[in-house]
Design a protein that fits this description.
With 222 residues, the protein is an alpha+beta fold. Helices cover 33% and strands 25% of the residues. The chain contains eight helices and nine strands.
């Protein structure tokens, strides 16, 4: 028996996993333990480091896709055959950092997206700057020739409302952009966005409250 903690790692790997061994597998000094991760198309082998007699530590490998893999704990001792001591399943998942990297990769040549990140960077904190950013972005948004089918929730607005996801409204509220929020509220999907929870379970309304944006919260609840 072994327990892996945590039982999942991001696709890009490189996170620490602790392996709790069962009573019968206490680490003897001349035994070398390693883990074999077997996915649908790729197999990885990682070495382990002894933390104490009942537990080991390893670094998760990177993997080629999101899936549940089989992890075998193997023990080898000089002059003896390699033994599979225990097996457990483990999951490779896509996390926010991976999503962000993927987004940035798709924006590699997109000057609009890249200029936007520079604009955000230059317009960070002081309240006066946020106010300036809010004014400019809301003005710019009003000026855009948005297609007739444009929706605050994006092209897949047909997604049922209860799928947790991040929306433009979350973005506007998180930065405290009052004018932009007001503009989005008047667009198709704007009111619908108010009741959508993101992966942390926050709606734009709860975000406004949590961040102490009273005016914004008032606007969203009225």
């Amino acid at each position: 028996v072994m327990k892996l903690n945590p039982q999942q790692a991001p696709l890009y790997g490189d996170s620490v996993i602790t392996v709790q061994l069962g009573e019968e597998d206490k680490v003897e000094d001349d035994v070398v333990f390693y883990l074999v991760f077997t996915g649908s198309t790729v197999q990885h082998c990682t070495s382990t480091r002894k933390i104490n007699p009942g537990s080991l530590e390893t670094i998760s490998p990177g993997h080629d896709c999101c899936e549940t893999v089989k992890v075998a704990l193997c023990a080898s001792r000089e002059g003896h055959p390699v033994l599979v001591v225990a097996e457990e399943s483990f999951q490779f998942v896509q996390d926010e950092a991976y999503d962000a990297a993927q987004f940035l990769a798709t924006c590699a040549g997109n000057q609009q997206a890249l200029n936007f990140t520079r604009f955000l960077d230059r317009s960070r904190p002081p309240a006066a700057d946020v106010d300036f950013l809010d004014e400019k972005v809301a003005l710019a948004f009003r000026h855009l020739k948005l297609p007739a089918e444009w929706n605050v929730l994006g092209a897949e607005q047909s997604l049922t409302e209860n799928i947790p996801r991040e929306t433009l409204m979350h973005f506007a509220v998180r930065l405290g952009l009052l004018r932009l929020t007001w503009f989005l509220l008047q667009q198709p999907g704007g009111r619908g966005a108010l009741s959508i929870h993101n992966n942390e379970g926050a709606t734009p309304v709860s975000l406004a409250l949590e961040r102490g944006y009273q005016k914004l919260h008032q606007l969203l609840t009225e």
